[in-house]
């Protein structure tokens, strides 16, 4: 059985700490005004405290804390102001460690969960208050202990990343994660110890072929399932004996646990099925003996509701106009070019923030293009056309960031990048752009058609661009290429006809005249401007562009170019239709109706409609001629009427 791994300081690591803490860093009292801090100090220094005093900390602990500060300052993942604020905590931290852990020489000696509880209790005794989020009002005390502990554990842990209980996907070659999010850890600590090696082996494969988000979903699915199984069978070390009954019990619990999680409920089951399928195909010794398709059935998966037009969260035209009028007030102003590109391209926020300043713009004879990689569908060197105005905005950002960038602060040559701080060398978080837009909407009262302050979402710009391209008449395949969709089904989600677009298209299509048949059967010309009801406009739009043939229960809305086997009355060409002179009145009535339809069609210029009904008329008249001659119409003939089964077969075999 696996045991909890706890790293310990090695001679090599201790020597590295000692070598780092040489010269000025060896001092126990750092003065922030010293020239050594010039590269870390901001132009404006607002804190009154100008020293960081480590002298009260225990010897081993002191070295680790100083090493944490120096290392993170030098890699620009800790601001000097934050370091000074942390320094205020040292007196109480030293007193706490002397009282609670007088013999420890390293942070790795702590059991951090218990230590955090005792640390919080100590601070509350000292008069610290708890806020509404159940955290200390001065949260830098908690943050300091957690960060130093985690930093030193990672520093001393020399194992391969896959052996650890918490994986940092940034350290795994080939792992796919989004730079604009602060999500990159996969923790196996919630997986029961007997099953942890199995989960790690499986995720080791997945992390190389799936995104971080998918791997996090897989891990959550495994945690739920394996924790349930471990609780039911504490002695199990594998899943060999897993049965359908166990799955049924799990599903009964799972439905209750995930109540209200429509999307996650489905995704976790898919992940579980993929897990069981893979470990069986790969021959894992822990795999169930019963095939996975006999454990998890198709009907176990809930049917997801299909997305409707209302699920396409595009931004209304009125809101876009208000945004354009107030965009210059967006703060911080460096987010303005990001929003401009979201609006102009419809790319995902992760793809916009992944642009490189050295290759994001291209000029051809046709004009400017924005170039970049689409991460989700792995479309590399993708490009879309942009206007001269948008290109000017991008070029200004390129010029500015290129001047400020160095191999240290911007190693990937990102167009939108943090040049200092914890995210140095990485783009800003996409969530911050959304929050800035929401603040702008509240500040400038950007409202929707109902007068409500609009809640912006970064992905809504993508939906808006897709709907816009389709409503402007772009070919669906071209829209698919623009949006870098893996399949046309994704693009079809944007095929939403806006009310204003429908009216314009309808008026354009009917500019040569629109007719409606009055109760007497006569065509009456209609002026499109007289129709105000949008539902009627939609109906007339359909009537003009589709066949709109009346049936006993409604209208057939088959497109013109699609052949209908039923429109021309299939009975008329069926060999089994048998009709006699008794039906002459019915045929004469049908002929009169078809002639009337043909006349209406000619009046409206419905050529295809007229041609099809003329064909139908010919068939009616041909049969009527036969009936008026006193004969029976039946293509199958006497043999088809009088013989059945073996008799018909014998007749066919008899020579004529």
What does this structure look like?
By secondary structure, the protein is mainly alpha-helical. It has four domains: 148 residues, no CATH class; 125 residues, no CATH class; 149 residues, Intergrase catalytic core (hpI Integrase, Chain A, Orthogonal Bundle), CATH 1.10.443; 130 residues, no CATH class. Helices cover 46% and strands 8% of the residues. It has 24 helices and 13 strands. A hairpin with a 2-residue loop joins strand 10 and strand 11. Helix 4 packs across helix 5. It is elongated.
Structure summary, number of beta strands:
13
Radius of gyration: 37 Å
Alpha plus pi helix count = 24
Terminal-residue CA separation: 89 Å
CATH topology of the largest domain: hpI Integrase, Chain A
Domain unit count: 4
**What average pLDDT do the residues reach?**
81
Q: List low-pLDDT spans.
A: 513-517, 533-548, 651-656
Fourth CATH level, the homologous superfamily of the largest domain: Intergrase catalytic core
What class, by secondary structure content? mainly alpha
From the coordinates shown, what is the CATH architecture of the largest domain?
Orthogonal Bundle
Strands ordered across the widest β-sheet: 5-6-7
Portion of residues in helices? 40-55%
**What is the class of the largest domain in the CATH system?**
Mainly Alpha
Reported for the largest beta sheet, the result is: 3 strands, antiparallel
Strand content: 5-15%
Overall form: elongated
Give a brief rundown of this model.
With 656 residues, the chain is mainly alpha-helical.
């Amino acid at each position: 059985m696996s045991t909890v791994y706890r790293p310990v300081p090695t001679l090599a690591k201790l020597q590295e700490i000692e070598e780092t803490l040489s010269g000025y860093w060896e001092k126990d009292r750092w003065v922030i005004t010293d020239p050594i801090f010039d590269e870390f100090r901001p132009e404006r220094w607002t804190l009154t405290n100008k020293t960081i005093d480590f002298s009260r900390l225990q010897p081993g602990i002191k070295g680790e804390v100083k090493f944490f500060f120096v290392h993170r300052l030098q890699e620009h993942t800790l601001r000097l102001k934050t370091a000074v604020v942390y320094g205020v905590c040292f007196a109480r931290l030293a007193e706490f460690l002397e009282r609670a852990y007088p013999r420890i020489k390293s942070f790795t000696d702590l059991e951090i969960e218990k230590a955090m509880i005792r640390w919080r209790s100590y601070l509350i005794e000292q008069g610290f208050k708890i806020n509404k989020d159940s955290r200390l009002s001065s949260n830098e005390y908690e943050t300091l202990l957690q960060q130093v502990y985690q930093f030193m554990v990672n520093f001393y842990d020399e194992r391969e990343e896959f052996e650890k209980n918490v994986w940092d996907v940034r350290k795994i070659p080939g792992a796919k994660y989004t730079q604009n999010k602060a999500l990159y850890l996969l923790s196996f600590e919630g997986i029961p110890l007997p099953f942890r090696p199995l989960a790690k082996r499986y995720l080791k494969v997945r992390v190389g072929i799936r995104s971080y988000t998918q791997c996090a979903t897989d891990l959550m699915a495994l945690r739920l399932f394996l924790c349930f199984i471990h609780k039911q069978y504490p002695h199990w070390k594998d899943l060999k004996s897993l049965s359908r009954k166990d799955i049924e019990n799990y599903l009964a619990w799972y439905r209750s646990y995930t109540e209200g999680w429509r999307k996650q409920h489905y995704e976790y089951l898919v992940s579980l099925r993929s897990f069981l399928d893979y470990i069986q195909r790969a021959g894992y010794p822990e795999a169930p003996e019963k095939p996975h398709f006999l454990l998890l059935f198709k009907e176990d998966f809930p049917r997801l509701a299909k997305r409707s037009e209302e699920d396409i969260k595009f931004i209304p035209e009125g809101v876009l106009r208000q945004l354009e009028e107030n965009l210059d007030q967006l703060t911080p102003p460096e987010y303005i070019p990001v929003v401009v590109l979201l609006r102009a391209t419809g790319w995902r926020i992760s793809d916009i923030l992944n642009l490189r300043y050295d290759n994001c713009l291209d000029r051809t004879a046709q004009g400017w293009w924005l170039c970049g990689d689409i991460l989700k569908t792995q479309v590399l060197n993708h490009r879309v056309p942009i206007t001269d105005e948008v290109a000017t905005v991008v070029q200004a950002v390129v010029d500015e960031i290129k001047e400020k960038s160095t191999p240290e602060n911007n190693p990937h040559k990102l167009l939108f990048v943090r040049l200092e701080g914890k995210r140095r060398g990485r783009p800003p978080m996409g969530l911050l752009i959304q929050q800035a837009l929401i603040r702008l909407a509240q500040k400038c009262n950007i409202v929707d058609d109902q007068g409500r302050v609009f809640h912006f979402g970064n992905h809504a710009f993508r939906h808006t661009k897709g709907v816009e391209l389709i409503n402007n008449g772009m070919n669906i395949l071209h829209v698919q290429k623009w949006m870098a969709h893996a399949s046309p089904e994704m693009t079809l989600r944007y095929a939403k006809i806006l009310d204003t677009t429908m009216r314009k298209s309808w008026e354009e299509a009917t500019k040569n005249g629109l007719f409606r048949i009055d109760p007497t059967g006569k065509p009456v010309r209609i002026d499109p401007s007289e129709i105000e009801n949008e539902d009627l406009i939609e109906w007339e739009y359909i009537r003009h562009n589709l066949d709109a043939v009346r049936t006993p229960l409604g209208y057939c809305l088959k497109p013109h170019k699609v052949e209908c086997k039923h429109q021309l009355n299939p009975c008329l060409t069926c060999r089994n239709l048998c009709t006699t002179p008794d039906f002459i009145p019915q045929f004469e009535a049908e002929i009169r109706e078809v002639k009337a339809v043909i006349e209406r069609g000619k009046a409206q210029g419905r050529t295809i409609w007229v041609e099809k009904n003329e064909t139908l008329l010919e068939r009616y008249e041909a049969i009527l001629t036969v009936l008026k001659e006193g004969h029976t119409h039946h293509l199958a003939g006497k043999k088809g009427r009088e013989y059945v089964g073996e008799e018909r077969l014998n007749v066919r075999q008899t020579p004529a």
